[in-house]
Amino acid sequence: MTGSDAGRPVTMRDVAAAAGVSVATVSHVVNDKPGARIGPETRRRVQAAVADLGYRPNAMAQNLVRGGSKFIGLVADAIATTPFAGQIIHGAQDEAWRHGYVLLVANTEGNDAAEKEALAMMLEHKVRGVIYSTWYHRRVELPPTLTESDHVLVNCFATDPGVRAVIPDEIGGGRTAAQLAIDAGHRRIGFVNTTTASPARDGRLIGYRDALKAAGLPVDERLIMDTRPDQEGGYAVVPALLERGVTAVCCHNDRVAMGVYDGLRERGVGVPDDLAVIGFDNQEVIAAHLRPPLSTVALPHYELGAAGVRVLLGLDDTAVTGIVSIPCPPVRRASA
Length: 336
Hints:
It comes from Flexivirga aerilata. The protein has helices at residues 12-19, 23-30, 40-53, 59-67, 87-98, 112-124, 170-183, 199-214, 231-243, 254-266, 284-287, 301-312; strands at 71-76, 102-107, 130-139, 151-157, 165-168, 189-194, 224-227, 248-251, 276-278, 296-297, 323-326, 330-331. The protein is α/β, with parallel strands linked by helices.
């Protein structure tokens, strides 16, 4: 048989499926990659599938093999459609361009089949490596195909040994948030955390505790409260904040802070004169437009993307753990 469905050009994926091997194996055979460990029977099956399907190697791909690919892949679950997290793509794109590379972006919306197709396409284009990113910081399971290329995780991490990852410094961010309140003279500082398990939930609380201890302030467990990580959650926790006499509160994110604003306004409590409010994330559509504008801590999405490219290209060293932590800077406005 020759060709493919409805006259569609035959791809490496078609050959790989016919031969029962990976796209990477087909690429090694077709391009006769030196040093590739491929058994004679596997090589024969690939060559037979190439002949049967009438596959013609892509000239651009062959040139890339000979001259070195100038593509870097970026596979994301949803960051391309998430405004503030989309800065990851912006940072990676700028950094790739700075070093003479072009970024190939695939947004999978968390669909496993789309992710598999995207990674296969990038292997077919002989990318220099792949940035694998998620829109919120979390642990991920590595897709098997990802390990067929050089790769770096961004805004996520894996427990597999030797996997490099670039993540936000959640502990440092929590410390920074509390320090904003401490620097403003507050001594009874609350912390509103999320009920959702995550590195952000754990890390920011550790940083808050560290900052209070470093300032010689007691850590009062009654001032640490959990709520939903949204505007309604912030609104719901206001009575407890007032009843426990806090003069400042660090919120898990800017949406929670917005809900705190709502609850305080209803009760005639002024921000920051009566109670200072500090957010986290620096979502511009929220933080910059509240009244008064919200003091917060930024998630460094642009820097995460840029650092991911640098780590992939070997321009930035990683720690022994393979983890690079990017600082979360303060954004001082008028609420603290």
